[in-house]
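Sample intake sheet
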Amino acid sequence: MSLQALLFDVDGTLADTEAHGHLPAYNRAFRELELDWEWSPKLYRELLNVPSGRERIAHYIERYKPDLGKHNEAAQSDRSAWVKTVHEHKSRHFQERLQNGQVPLRAGVKRLFAQAHAADLRIAIVTNASAATLEPFLAYALGEELCSYIDAVVSGEQAQRRKPAPDVYLKACRALNCKPASCVAIEDSAMGLDAAYHAGIPTVVTLNADTRAESLAHASLIVDSLGEPGEPIQVIRSSIPGTPEYIDLDILRRLQREFVHTAPAADG
């Protein structure tokens, strides 16, 4: 079974959207709404264990009991609607940061997209993010050329369960008409790794500041970046011998072939 498709997570994988986009956008929205809240990087790393933005805000309110200020009555009378309003403010500020070029792609992303397209491999975006968050990222961070290479997009809204459940990955495989073990997922977190692994997909994890301390036992390869020629990556762990300078299709094909021999059964 040969490699047929690359499945890319978005937040933290294609770009450091959490540090450069989402977190500052949340804090900007809080200030705009005159909420005396400030999410630190440490707190935000904890909140990232909650799969979606609205759920994250609701969890923060329930767990930390912050002062709701002048919004107390509205938040108490219809919590869901009020959380939606807060998230809409955050989404607007996130889009502004994307438009202003404040959320650059991570090293190697553009190169690997182009290599996969040239080799006639299919490409999918597989993310917990909502369409409202995803669409501006695709438009402003990836851009028209790279977006034209994408064959399928599966967001968290399109599956019954978000990551760490395997649903979004299984849906992407069906959309591409590919068996899971013929794909490679590119992820950045334990949550995404678990989703891909339980779908039966070999996974490369590209670490970032938010995920460096996570348990990533099921990863086929753990690196600090996809890298670029002349800019060697750090390989933390690999299922194949050798230390690549950067991640290319040859490395991904070798990982996929190795995984096929021990691929887990997909859930569902």
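Comment: DSSP finds ten helices and seven strands in the chain. The beta strands are 5-8, 122-126, 152-154, 183-187, 203-206, 221-223, 235-238.
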